[in-house]
Design goal:
By secondary structure, the chain is mainly α. The chain is built from six helices and four strands, in the order E-E-H-H-H-H-E-E-H-H.
């Protein structure tokens, strides 16, 4: 899905889902992540020491739901589409013009993102809303850093 600003129901505005994830990985601190997009956010999140979250999927499901719900054209296309999903990035040489051939890269979380988008499509079609996830793991990150 293309980049689009959205307002998370609990944590406020973000320029991208990548920015939201960098913010979440940092224990929901660091307002600079709110404006990061794409690879800038991905690179920033790689510099953050974190641990695996037990409820990562639920946190990202809720955030993606909010993003899609706030963009009627995305939501309409998602509901009406019957095409299968694929998740990948296309990387090209630095300075390449838009539309130039690039290298297709499927990230490690490819299967999870396809599953999530399929689930979101069904939720929107059925008028369902995701349950609010347990955010306690996100806040524990800050407590662990403070104690360490």
């Amino acid at each position: 899905m293309q980049e689009a600003h959205f307002k998370h129901t609990r944590f406020g505005p973000f320029s991208s889902m990548e920015g939201f994830w960098a913010f979440a990985r940092n224990g929901c601190t660091g307002d600079q992540y709110r404006r990061y997009r794409g690879m800038t956010a991905v690179r920033a999140s790689r510099k953050i020491e974190t641990r695996k979250l037990a409820n990562f999927y639920e946190i990202m499901l809720e955030a993606n739901y909010a993003k899609i719900d706030q963009h009627p054209a995305f939501k309409k296309a998602l509901i009406e589409s019957t095409l299968p999903f694929e998740h990948y990035y296309i990387h090209g040489p630095k300075g390449a013009k838009a539309g130039s051939p690039g290298i297709l890269i499927k990230p490690a979380m490819d299967d999870m993102m396809v599953t999530m988008m399929t689930q979101l499509r069904e939720m929107f079609r059925n008028g369902e809303v995701p349950a609010e996830p347990d955010y306690s793991d996100l806040f524990l990150i800050n407590q662990e850093r403070s104690a360490g």
